[in-house]
Give the backbone structure.
Amino acid sequence: MAWLAMALCFWFYPGGPAWGKYNWLTKRAATKPSYTIPGPRGLPIVGSMNLMVHLAHHKLSAAAKSFGAKRLMAFSLGDTRVIITCNPDVAKEILNSSVFSDRPVKESAYSLMFNRAIGFAPYGVYWRTLRRIAATHLFCPKQISSTEAQRLDIASQMVSIIACRRGEFFVRDILKKASLNNMMCSVFGTNYQLGSPNTETEQLSQLVEEGYDLLGKLNWSDHLPWLAGLDIQKIRLRCSKLVPRVNKFVNKIIQEHKLQSGNTNRDFVDVLLSLNGPDRLSDNDMIAVLWEMIFRGTDTVAVLIEWILARMVLHPEIQSRVQAELDEVVGKSRPLMESDVESMVYLPAVVKEVLRMHPPGPLLSWARLAIKDTTVDGYHVPAGTTAMVNMWAITRDPDVWVDPVKFMPERFVSKDSTDVEFSVLGSDLRLSPFGSGRRSCPGKTLGLATVTFWVGTLLHEFKWVPSDENSPVDLGEVLRLSCEMANPLKVKVHPRL
Ligand code: HEM
């Protein structure tokens, strides 16, 4: 009875039970009401778990509007205190603050070893070392340009496969395989042909899919610790089955690399094996880092390209304009090269406009955690609070963007040569699909280069049309770890060259 009475008292506070517990125990609200961030109470004990299922970015945006809390809203996920913003200035304050440089603990991430990789490693020396190694050997401009031939090769394999398709087909599978092969080549040095199935790629793609599903799920026991022993969603069980398979797969590749010392064609495994002194990683940490790179680099790229192609099918006049630019810069007698993209303005504008309307991480994929007490937008935010940014809501806010729901790449084409180009890499929070600040995406330049080049190639080679003139493209979404098209894009193509 006492427990129930306490639960109801906690629930009474704006923001729900987790905020109520904090305010009650610290007597904050009683002394300083201005500390109270507006937000939904949700239900007693569980708080607003309902907001985080299905299309969470839509629900959170609607809740922020109804509470007049677009700048900052508080809510509870069980015992977890959460703040979320739909405002670019407050987003900047959160993401660029050193206080929010940690990630909240997620059981599935720990079980899948991601706490030993960049994404979920606690903020500190180990995380900084990993970021430095990745920045120097995988994401630096020199390394990105040295893998250009690999991206070109995979692009031409995609073109050959698509050219053989008669009638309508789903494009997702081709994009996912291309993206996986690309990451496998950079990370493991393996070079498989897209058209010829092989067991290694099939196996890895299954591991990635399963990991993706597990990490994208809202795990009730992350927020209700008293449920942890029960594993009602079977997430712990599935993680414990997946991890030995990942270990076996990646460890085999590491051991093969150890035997082939002296290899001149250096991939990321070779780089990690060549590190000495304090940078040297244990085999287990190496597995975590390599697995994360494959995991993060594969789906984001494929998901974004599918959205771009969907928009191209839906807006044939915009597709024709990109193709006119491609014909002007490249001509029709040779394939697109990455260096051509530098002379183009409309193709990058299309990519930015799709990132605006369909950010692969509408809530920026992974939240942040306050490592100490701080102030956000004038409100007190205690240590241990989870912070999120609703990038989807920001990019659809009429106070931030003119005609936000209209697909209009022209908005990114500067009218004047003195206009500074809009950067999507994290400096302007009106559109920051790769996050911002210390924990922003380290793969952003590589990801953007791959997406722009592959989309350019696919549009240069083919005209993309709907599979059925009477059924337009369905832009419905499904939110897993990334936000994908709910119904995979089905198309027909006509060769252009
Ligand atoms: C279109 C492509 C991509 C998008 C939209 C994207 C988006 C994101 C976002 C939103 C975050 C969280 C940022 C934050 O908290 O501020 C992130 C983190 C991360 N991304 Fe990406 N990403 C993409 C491609 C890649 C690629 C190609 C790789 C690696 C090969 C990668 C590796 C990572 C890693 C390791 C982190 C965790 C960083 C940390 O916690 O320090 N991403 N990404």
In short: The longest helix spans residues 283-314. Residues 95, 118-119, 131, 292-293, 296-297, 300-301, 304, 360-361, 364-366, 433-436, 439-443, 446-447, 451 surround protoporphyrin IX containing FE (CB under 6 Å). The first strand starts at residue 73 and ends at 77.
